[in-house]
Automatic annotation (TrEMBL):
Gene3D superfamilies: SGNH hydrolase (3.40.50.1110). Residues 35-224 form the SGNH hydrolase-type esterase domain. It holds the Pfam family Lipase_GDSL_2. Keywords: Signal. This is SGNH hydrolase-type esterase domain-containing protein. The keyword Signal applies. It comes from Fictibacillus barbaricus. PANTHER family: SPORE GERMINATION LIPASE LIPC, THIOESTERASE 1/PROTEASE 1/LYSOPHOSPHOLIPASE L1. The keyword Secreted does not apply. It comes from the Bacteria. Residues 1-23 form the signal peptide.
C-alpha cells in the first residue's frame, strides 16, 4: 500500500466482521449503557461518513447475552475535546440523568486535545496531554459522584499515525503513548477500568484503518474494539 507523509492538517481531521462471544449477565439486573467521547464512539469511518461504532456493537453483545439492555444512549460527538466532554458531564442534565442511571459507561476522549496542539503550536503539545489528563480526572470524579455503582471503562487509543514514515512516527508515537499513559493513570486512580486497543489494531492497521488519508477505523475495526470492551466487562462481572 502506498505510504506518504501527511501534513499536520491531515492529523486535524482524525478525530473530528468478527463474531462476538456472549457472556452470561444476570437476568435479574437491568443493564443500562451510556457511551461518551469523540468521533471513534460516534462512528466516523475512513470515508468521512458515519456507521456503527464500538458502542453499537457492544450494545448488540449485551443484547445477545441472557440479559438485554434496558437502555442505551450514545452521546459521542466528533471532534470533542476533554474540555467539552467535561462540560457536558458537569452541566448537561440529560447526560447527567442517563449517567446516574447507567450500569455501564464507556469513554473515549483525549486525542483531540493532542491534535489541536499539534495543529496550532506543536511545542505546546504536552499541554494538550496535561489538559486531557486533568479533565478526564474531573469527568471520572463527577461520574463517580453521580453514580458510584456504575462500571466505567475508558479506552486507550491505537496508533493513529501508523501510515507515517518511521522518522515521523519517532516524534508522534511517543506523544500518543504519553496520552495513553495519562488516560490509564487517571482511570486506575479513579477505580475504573482501562481498555487498551493498540495491541489489537496496530498489527493489522491496514485492515482496520484502510484509508491512508484518514485515521478512523472501518466497521471491522470497531467490532474488534467492541470485543476488547466485552472481554473486560465479562472479567469484571
Amino acid at each position: 500500500m502506498k505510504k506518504k507523509i501527511f501534513s499536520l492538517m491531515t492529523i486535524g481531521a482524525l478525530f473530528s466482521n468478527s463474531s462476538a462471544t456472549f457472556a452470561y449477565l444476570p437476568s435479574d439486573q437491568n443493564h443500562e449503557y451510556v457511551a461518551l467521547g469523540d468521533s471513534i464512539p460516534a462512528g466516523m469511518t475512513p470515508s468521512g461518513s458515519y456507521d456503527l461504532s464500538y458502542p453499537d456493537y457492544l450494545k448488540n453483545m449485551f443484547d445477545g447475552s441472557s440479559s438485554k439492555l434496558a437502555d442505551y444512549d450514545n452521546f459521542a460527538v466528533s471532534g470533542y475535546t476533554s474540555e467539552q466532554l467535561k462540560y457536558d458531564v458537569e452541566n448537561n442534565e440529560t447526560i447527567r440523568q442517563e449517567l446516574s442511571e447507567a450500569t455501564h459507561i464507556t469513554i473515549t476522549i483525549g486525542a483531540n486535545d493532542l491534535f489541536q496542539k499539534l495543529l496550532t503550536n506543536p511545542s505546546t503539545v504536552h499541554q494538550g496531554i496535561a489538559a486531557a489528563s486533568t479533565n478526564l480526572d474531573s469527568i471520572l470524579t463527577t461520574i463517580d459522584t453521580l453514580n458510584p455503582d456504575a462500571d466505567v471503562y475508558v479506552m486507550g487509543y491505537y496508533n493513529t499515525f501508523a501510515y507515517y514514515p518511521e522518522q515521523v512516527q519517532d516524534f508522534l508515537v511517543p506523544l500518543s503513548n504519553a496520552l495513553n499513559n495519562e488516560i490509564e493513570m487517571r482511570t486506575v486512580e479513579n477505580g475504573d477500568t482501562y481498555v487498551p486497543t493498540a495491541h489489537v489494531i496496530d498489527q493489522k492497521f491496514e485492515k482496520y484503518m484502510p484509508n491512508p488519508d484518514d485515521n478512523h477505523l472501518n466497521v471491522k475495526g470497531y467490532k474488534v474494539i467492541a470485543k476488547e470492551f466485552w472481554k473486560t466487562i465479562k472479567q469484571n462481572r
